[in-house]
Amino acid sequence: MATLQLTQVAKRFDDTEVLKGIDLEVNDREFVVFVGPSGCGKSTLLRIIAGLESATSGDIVVDGERINEVGPADRGLAMVFQSYALYPHMTVEDNMGFSLRLAGVGKAQRRDKVREAARILQLEPLLDRKPKALSGGQRQRVAIGRAIVRNPSIFLFDEPLSNLDAALRVQMRIELARLHEELDATMIYVTHDQIEAMTMADKIVVLQAGEVEQVGSPMELYHHPRNRFVAGFIGSPKMNFLPVTASAADSDGVEVQLPGGGQRKVPVKGEGLSGGEPLELGIRPEHLVLDDEGPLEGRIQVLERLGGQTSLYLKMGEQLITLMADGDVEHRVHDLVRFGFEPQRAHLFDAEGLALESLQRHPLSRLVRQDSRERSENSRARPEDDA
């Protein structure tokens, strides 16, 4: 059992408020990702959980016990840092078992724990090597192994893949997801890379300027962002935003005037909207479609051919719009093209950047959340938990 509850956790450095009253619950065996731009407070929040920073105010509770005054070594947590922080003069086996040696664990037991962690991480052939003889991905696995041998209640990861090249990052994402499944552990992971967040998390916590913007499953945030910031941050390539004007609103949605004169009705709640009110239309590049009869028009500035897909960067007035098309699209740079979208794929944001509530819930966002909840409930009911 390993749950975490944060209640009004705040952090101030002199006159600078870095965290502004964070409330959050992390469930047992959940993989939670803190994501946000540089300076949003995600690493500071992780360090406060680990005990490496103290909270200015608020409570940190692990498995029902308040741990604000408990030292880092006694919290039962293990942290994997961005830098591998391995001892260069020690072998892989000695690096992984060093914390156990400091804790007074016997040599035989220490070796058993290290060998088991090495098996899980596929490091068994490397135990006699020193860090200089390892690749970046292997060094990161050793750092993770050093955390595993401690059998922590919660694993904490602070941007562990940022020093790896693109291919290794993909490989390590797969390995971390497999590791979470095999260890059945609670994990909290910090990254600025929303692709890492989308591919690994059960639950994403989006932070901005020291505040939580939204918490939810990856697909819930993708299909139902709470505001313009979350909509623009989650998804790659990022969402397009177009200025539009509300022309009418009823129980079926809000009709908007598009740039260029076309109109579309978006199925969102529009209570209180008046005609002529300025809004922003959000539409993801993968939801735009080339259409000779489409209501929008742009000139191709750049084509990026990626094989199965082609990214078109279209100039619309002063805006650059991204459209994901089939890889075999025959258009060329400087072509003038028309395009459109399905209204149910679009989002509307008011003048304050808040999303107007959709009249429909995407079925996949419900299924993902239900699957996560059922997995957590089923794991709690396993026989070994009652042993």
Q: What is the element layout, followed by pairings?
A:
Layout: E1 4-13, E2 16-26, E3 31-35, H1 42-50, E4 57-62, E5 65-66, E6 77-80, H2 92-102, H3 107-121, H4 136-148, E7 154-158, H5 166-183, E8 186-191, H6 194-200, E9 203-208, E10 211-216, H7 218-223, H8 228-233, E11 240-250, E12 253-257, E13 263-266, E14 278-283, E15 288-290, E16 296-305, E17 309-316, E18 319-326, E19 336-341, E20 347-349, H9 363-380, H10 383-386
Parallel strand pairs: 3-8, 3-9, 6-7, 7-8
Antiparallel strand pairs: 1-2, 1-4, 4-5, 9-10, 11-12, 11-14, 12-13, 14-20, 15-19, 16-17, 16-19, 17-18
Helix pairs in contact: 2-3, 2-4, 3-4
Can you say what the CATH homologous superfamily of the largest domain is? Answer: P-loop containing nucleotide triphosphate hydrolases
N/C terminus separation? 13 Å
Q: Report the sheet-strand fraction.
A: 25-35%
Give average pLDDT, whole number: 90
Tally of alpha and pi helices:
10
- The number of distinct β-strands equals 20
Low-pLDDT windows of residues: 382-387
Record the strand order, biggest sheet: 6-7-8-3-9-10
- Radius of gyration (Å): 24 Å
The name of the CATH topology of the largest domain is Rossmann fold
Class per helix and strand makeup: alpha+beta
CATH class membership of the largest domain: Alpha Beta
Question: What oligomeric state do the depicted chains represent?
Answer: single chain
Number of domains: 2
CATH architecture of the largest domain: 3-Layer(aba) Sandwich
GO molecular function: ABC-type maltose transporter activity; ATP binding; ATP hydrolysis activity
Domain ABC transporter: 4-234
Region (Disordered): 367-387
Protein name: Multiple sugar transport system ATP-binding protein
